[in-house]
Amino acid sequence: MDVDVARGRHEWIEPGAFEVAPGVHRIPLPMPGDGLRAVNVYALEDGDGLALVDAGWALPEAREALESALGLLGRGIGDVRRFLVTHLHRDHYTLAVRLRAETGATIALGAGERPSLEALLDGTADRQLGKLERAGADELAAMVRDALVGDGGGPEQDYEQPDEWLPDGAEVRVGTRTLRVLETPGHTRGHVVFVDAANGLLFAGDHVLPHITPSIGLEAARTPLPLGDYLSSLRLVGELPDLRLLPAHGPVTGSAHARVAELLDHHERRLDQTEAAVLAGAATGFETASALGWTRRERAFAELDEFNRILAVGETLAHLDVLVERGRLHRSTSDGVDRYRQA
Asked: Distance (Å, rounded) from C-alpha 105 to C-alpha 226?
């Protein structure tokens, strides 16, 4: 059994079960593609069984990796009694649904995710189309629409209702420890983190990530100001005692506060860049996204794949909306497309 320490940018994806604290192990599970690479789930001793914070993507290789890692701890899939899920995205939720059907384990999810889950289950999860059309990204919207038609447009098969909805401030007993549920909307409207104050741990999900900035507002039921929600949630975490950061993607690090400060600074710089793009002549969300650099490498928008162009447009709209809310830009709408100019 290895003791988890701060690791390099990609070493954290190595398979295994890594001790984070007494009774807590980080287990990286594989994801498809070469983007995020893996998702960390955290196994916590829970009486004579285990609780997992997040679950992984419902893929055979993820299940196999989880079973192998639990075996290193002398455990098996059947020892997992419940899942505490930070948010609804596929790489956090869907393996829990699969394993619940197999073992009877329970699933708990933040109460704020209910509107998005209902949209997924009732087949109305194509609301991203409206966001893209509002941004003037008709070509991307057409691609998404074609994909939905190709999939039959029906409910998401990997999604089901949780057994328990967790309200903000709820206290969850896991073995000898108490986890406090803290609502941190932004990445999704119902994202939660789990605060283990007594042991100095923050199970952060995708809210605070050590090397990347989480996408904002990629969900079926988007809130009016997801970036504003996210910035407020970051400040909320910054008001907690500084805790060890246990993220869903990336290595464990010693200070949540340090990364919160970096993320707040990043978004203020991004707001300035977004405003500058509009002042230079970009009028729509699509035009503004096309004028900005993306990823740490400042890649051109046209170099991104389809999925990441959709993410980029959504991110840009989130920043434009905050600039409007702050009075730095003016928004008008014509022919169903929002256009921005200097306030």
From this structure: 32
